[in-house]
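look at this stuff:

>
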Amino acid sequence: MINIRKLESELWESADLLRAGSKLTSNQYCMPVLGLIFLRYAYSRFKMVEAEILKDRPKRGGRVMPVEASDFAAKSALFLPKEAQYDYLLNLPKDIASAGMVNKAGNSMNTLGEVVNNAMELIEEQSEQLTGVLPKTYTDFSDDLLNDLLRIFSNSALDEVGGDIVGRIYEYFLNKFAKNIASDDGVFFTPKSLVKMIVNILEPKSGVLLDPACGSGGMFVQSGDFVNQSGMNANSAMTFYGQEKVGYNAQLCLMNMAVHGLTGKIKSGDEANTFYHDAHNLMGKCDYVMANPPFNVDKVKAADCADDKRLSFGNPSINKNNEFGNANYLWISYFYSYLNDKGRAGFVMASSATDSQGKDKDIRQKLVQTGHVDVMISVGNNFFYTKSLPCSLWFFDKTKPQELNDKVLFIDSRNYFTVVDRTLNEWSEWQLKNLNAIVWLHRGEKDKYSRLLAEYHEELNSDKAFADILTILQDEETSLRAEAKKAVDDAKKAEKAAKAKKEKYTGKKAKEVQAEYDEKLAELAERITTAKEAVWLYEKFGDGEYADVLGLCKAATIDEIEAKGWSLTPGAYVGVAPVEDDGVDFGARMKEIHQELLQLQAESNKLMDTISKNMKELGV
């Protein structure tokens, strides 16, 4: 079983160490490294599809017929000429010039950088979508650096294409690079937990999906995963369209989609500036719109878009320079205009847009009165990699059940998140599911909520059958809360046992005991977290009936929204939750355990130093 988090971290640390030893900036390094990850993915998939083709390959003269590019096209896979295959590049002689190689143009190649550039050009010949997209700046790298990078990504774990290992590695590297080379405040990379929340609530199934500010393509990738997990093929069920003004970001998007096996129509440059162009002519034609547009953009020329048919609710305020001073409501209006009569939209927006005044307020009123504003979620600080401001998630739905046409669900999640480090927060997988569960219950989809409870119990009490769930929940001794407390107690016992066991050993054996305890503690911490989230959900919604929860959620009517001056700020509706003491201070206890663990480690190191010193004095 591969520890994907460990693999991600190890690969990044190795690659980043190489960059630190070179003269390359993060900007120069990012695209070529992502290109190598793409190349590694393409080769893994090539070998997998080649094996499928060869299974039933006819023979001629006792020899198996060689595979051809057309065989791969029939399986929607990328054919790789020999010179573009990863193993070929790995096994080249150190002295490239001595190999007498020529590129596709017939010119001699004398460096490894030239050979990799040629590989990228050969791949582009096989895919119209990738034409002009792949990086070809590998001559900026020394042969030694490039060779070391190729070997880093030759890790055998990356052959597990079926598990989308390479896709995750690509996303992980993109995330890490985003902190260093953010363009336009990081608009090219939307944090994964925000993307997953949007996709989970919209639940794409089939049809046309547009991201008019597509950045690195996260919305497409997560939507593809969602569709594939439902048992359908994303490329057959969905048509992906993107607009991205910055060509560099569009390259990242197309590579990202290719790494995840997706195809799409992505336009970039001035024609893809969504403020002024509907580049794909999709007004009124989209089943889904998803986006994380740049916030609070000013100086958008009113003369070039003031009469745009996409602004059916009217224009935002125009200043004395004949510019839109804030483009937030241009984006919001555009997103709505792209939807067909069954369409859904989900997007990230600056928090200030939920109650901005003037013409913004007039547009917001008209939007609410359509009955298509579905869900509003407040998101706390530090969810972005390059800025700390809070934001909101907006959702439109033109197919809301009739009984919900008069309602908007408000969720205030500003105090509900997981701390990654001092500058970054996110929603864990369980937290994403819990927030999604509120939306399910609001929509009357109790079956999905019940399946989530079953999932919790499978994690916490795997020997119990689905039919026993309600009994389990009502039984004080085996309740979710009891499971949480038991997990903490188990952590204490493990800590005590490890400490007693460690005192008996020194040296290598002590380290083995330490490692064993670290692993056990990690498992218990994960179980505690799962139990905590299960308690959080069940105590609020029990067996599965939606109810407003003070400080968290409120289903408000249009009349109530009008009474609040057409504000769409969740905090204005949900109120403030009372401070609760649930009897289990998970965070504090885990910190105590961790501190004691560090103390044990320090004592062990001190003991080892003393032993080493004594051995030296004895001349051993």
Remarks:
- The chain is about 45% helix and 10% strand.
- The CA atoms of residues 12 and 339 lie 40 Å apart.
- Residues 183-188, 463-478 have pLDDT under 50 and may be disordered.
